[in-house]
Known about the structure:
The protein is mainly alpha-helical and 669 residues long.
Amino acid sequence: MNDLLQFAVIGFSTGAVYAVLGSSLVSLYVATGVINFAQGSVALWAVWQTAGLRTNGVLVLPVGSVQLGSGPMDVWPAVLIGAASGLVWSLLAHLLVFRPLRRAPELGQVVASVGVMLFIQALVPLRFNAGTLGTEPSSLIPLPTLTSEVFTLGGTTIAVSNLILAAAAITVALALAGYFRFTRMGIATRAGAEDEQALRLMGYSPDRLAAFMWGATGFASGLIVILAAPAIGGLDPTSYMLYVVPALAVALVGRLTSIGVACGAGLALGSVQQILLFLTAKSWWPSWAQAGVGDAIPFLIVVVALFLLGRGIPERGARDVGAQAPVRVPRLRPLWTAALVAGTAVAIVLTTGQWRFSLVMSIILTLIAASVVLLTGFLGQISLTTMAFAGAAGFALSKLTTNVGVPFPLSMLLSALTATALGIVVGVPALRIRGAQLAVATIAAALAIESFVFNNPAMTPYTGNLIADPSLFGFSLAVRQGTDLITLRFSFMVLVIVAVLLIAMTRLLSGATGRAFLAVRSNERAAAAAGVNVPAVKLLGFALASFLAGVGGCLIGYSRGQLSAASFTVLVGLAVLATTYVGDITRISGAILAGVAGPLGLLYLVFTQTIDLGHYYTLVVAAAMLLRVVVFAPHRDAVPEWLLVRRARRAPAQPPATAAHARESADVR
């Protein structure tokens, strides 16, 4: 019992991060209606900024740097400046990204949030390097612990720093809750969640109120992560970004309205994870559950919370949502299709070595991106688990070909069906939720699968996940032969499989199934009233998308001969989503562009080999994603707020039921 208490208190350090990030997510949702996936990335920058100041007094900016003083900065000034950098990043995200998208559909806001998340994460290693800091990142001075004092309680040694972090998280939560409950600005912010037009008539600016909350949550998130960093991860370049997943889980436990519940759930989650870490070291604990159990808990929390509370999570009352991007029903054009396939085949023949390999990878990524087009572009289900489905099929292929000896192509079919079954399971929450809430559930599922399956040595051993070469009727289709990096026969096999599946997908989407998909995407209630079985259509969409992604994962496995979890991480999946959205997430041609621009595809090879800018690849993709969704999106809010206020004050009073229609008419004029 003493050990359990000790590990529960140790978990307060991580729990405090979850609590503050979760409280910040709730506050932002109340103030703006945005679920901010980039909250952890803001804190990531704050941690590195503080470490740079503590090392040599360098204030690192997105472009350039400033030397503050002649040497290392004292602890608390560095901590406060680091937290202030989180405030600045949050304000920039509000002004440049989310403010123009306040009337955007949820897909646009989710994609923008993921773009900010990837942009900051990619910028950190580029800016905090030896050239900027004057020293290698590994030589940065670690952040100091709050205190090293301990005391004994009932025979259990308790670290005071963990209690301080828990108290700090509770203080932040109380401050945010008190702001909304007791201050005029906070009450006005809550009122704006119900009716922004009435708020403008009262003389308040929703944008300014939102900006205040963006800045406050950015500062609070940066501060608590800086204080907790020595205990939870030091200067890890990615983990803080993914802390947003458990934070989203605890925010949903609070129904995206209760800051106190989110804070308490965050502290409890951190303690539970540490207790599980302690229990996994016991001899009686099953070997298959010794890794990734703690990371799977947020997904379970998300699913339970959304099923129990999903219908009770409120929508913003006056959120005037713009039209979704139009979808063009695909048509199979035999001549154009044949010309594209023939041109790709010629390119395969004319290329060799790394160029042919990247071309084949682009073809495979086209199939994986097509699964995103089908599920998100046509069906409207925002899923971030694409690469998890691909990875599940790839690792299943390893087991089937090496342990069971299942021959090709049956091995690939069974592996893709394994991914299909997983896709149906992940798609079950979509029967009750949709939009940004579904995105939360799917990113939690992706992280759980990555941690509990891909990085679990009991399921995918570190010694390697070999995949036997494919062969058909005794004819080898192996990817390598002698010194040839990638053979023509393997390349043509990939081209044929992908072409057949894309043609089948085109025929499917151009028929009754595609019409059912578009009906559900447009309006689920209207589709149900028209006789569409909405739950069945949603599960069918998840099944088909996971099957396509699963086949793509198998082809990736065959192209490598041996798989690792690094090929199917959450970050890779987000990069695929980004390139698909940039290409056009509503068209199959967008999937082709995404394949060319995807990780390890042709554009990636150009960045790494031709212009030697491979380390800028993720940054460029994230920037293109933000540019696409903010500048070129048709739902961009181009009407300035002062004009909206002027129109609102001139308009006669109207019943609440028609106020939104009046606002829409004013915007159209």
